[in-house]
Amino acid sequence: MKHFFNRIYILLSNLQSKIAFYPSLFAIFGFLTAFLLIYLENQGISEYLIKKAPMLMVNDGSTALSILTACITGLISMMVFSFSMVMVLLNQAASNYSPRLLPGLISDKIHQVILGVYMATILYCIFVMVSIKPEADNYQTPSFSVLIGIIFTVICIGAFIYFIHNISQSIQINNILDRIFRQAKTRLNFLLKTEENEDQEFPDTKEWYEYHSEKSGYFQNLSSDNLLDICIEQETQIEILPVKGVFILNGIPLFKSKKELDDETLKKVLSNFSLARGELVNTNYVLAFKQITEVIVKSMSPGINDPGTALNALDYLTELLALRMQKQDEQYLKNDEAIIIKMKSVSFGELLYQVLAPIRGYCKHDIIIVQKLGWMFKYLKTQKSVNEEYYKIMDNEAKNIISDAKSVIDNKADLEKINTIQKQLNLEF
N or C: which end of the chain has fewer CB within 10 A? Predict the structure, then answer.
């Protein structure tokens, strides 16, 4: 049963990132609500309310049809406009900032919910219109259903106003960076709280049984609690080989087990690996570093030339790096007695190199960016770190940046500023 619920959880987690998820749910809600109201009409709810509150009821069939038609027409126009605005947002983000930002923008629940409210109301009004049947020269008017349709339309107008406000905010790069930063910070803080790496020992896994992936995709998440239960039940230990966030190809080594696993157990273990065709920051904080780095590189490209955005992005990058310095490169899961599962993270050195290598390539000619990077290193060297090697890694990367900057900058005043940065960081070549 636990295995079944785990599969359902992974499926729902993947579906929530799709732009059509919430609109589909709301559309089903609108469809079901229409049939519920039609049922209540057959029970005489409109006749009752006409007697109690006649000023709120539409008791004319032609008027009811006109109102519902106007609601449907207006809502379709608003929905088309809203979809168009979303597409403009995605296109601008991809061209000006980074294509890697698109999954986060697409999965924005606010936009999905608003589009879902539109679709639910449209479907509701359509089915209520169908229920208005003529009898001789008169219509059977579902007055209460029409009233609910009017209320839903008013809600849609309010949602549309909020959508315009939200889309105007979402398209701003500072808000995009802040959203990425907050998601990554939340994920890192979660990992720091669950980390138990001090004085831990894990056996040598060279002779362990190796098992391979049966499908391809980005290693998005791991159901660690379920996997821990399986290991305890089978009395074995497991080492997860790939780093979370990497693209796993079919057939490559996925994990090692101390004990040989039967086919049924292997199937259970593999079901706890969530592989998808996309990446999400809330499950892989490394993606946030990639996205912010690409924003910096893109903003400094000749076609855009936006150093202000690069400087802002470096501020967010600095804070995330300071938080990453508090995390070990490996993570362990254990029961009360011993370590059961060993997982790898992208090492601090590799992460810092992946971030700074493209920045060095595209920004080394800009003295302002180089200065900002110098201040970043100066700040990071004052921060607490779980590993003293992290400081040496930062010194090496700082040397690379200064060396590259000196190779392309000829202005004496700029070179003096670079030398000043070198002295402040106590770097010796």
Answer: N
Give the β-pairing of 238-240 and 339-344.
parallel
- Cα(73)–Cα(69) distance, rounded to whole angstroms? 6
Q: Terminus-to-terminus CA distance in the chain, angstroms? A: 61
Name the pTM for this structure.
0.76
CA-to-CA distance for 36 and 264, rounded, in angstroms? 46
260 C-beta neighbours (distance < 10 Å), count: 12
Closest CA to 372 of 363, 382, 362: 363
Rounded-to-integer distance, Cα 96 and Cα 25, Å: 33
Name residue, tokens 């893109």.
Answer: 298
Count of residues making up the chain? 429
The Cα 46–Cα 69 span in angstroms is 20
The CA distance from 182 to 273, in Å, is: 25
- Residue 57 domain boundaries: 2-171
For tokens 């009821």, name the residue: 57
Name the residue with tokens 């609601």: 71
Task: List all residues 6 or more positions away from 5 whose beta carbon is below 8 Å from its beta carbon.
Answer: none
Q: How many domains does the chain have?
A: 1
CA distance 359 to 28: 47
Look at residue 20 and tell me if it is in a domain: yes
Q: What is the pLDDT of residues 363-372, one digit of tens each?
A: 999 999 999 9
User: Residue 206 CB: number of other CB atoms within 10 A?
Assistant: 6
DSSP calls for 197-212: -TT------TTSEEEE
Nearest to residue 314, comparing CAs of 339, 301, 328, 297? 297
Whether residue 425 lies inside any domain: the answer is no
DSSP 328-347: -SEEEEE-SSSEEEEEE---
CA distance 2 to 365: 56
Q: What are the structure tokens assigned to 144, written together?
A: 């209460």
Judged by phi (left if over 0) then psi (alpha if -120 to 50, else beta), residue 199 lies in left
Q: Is residue 413 part of a domain?
A: no
The better pLDDT of the pair 276, 118 is held by 118
289 within some domain: no
Helix, strand, coil proportions of the chain in percent (round to 5)?
A: 65, 10, 25
Per-residue pLDDT reduced to its tens digit, 3-47? 555 556 556 665 666 667 888 889 999 999 998 988 888 888 877
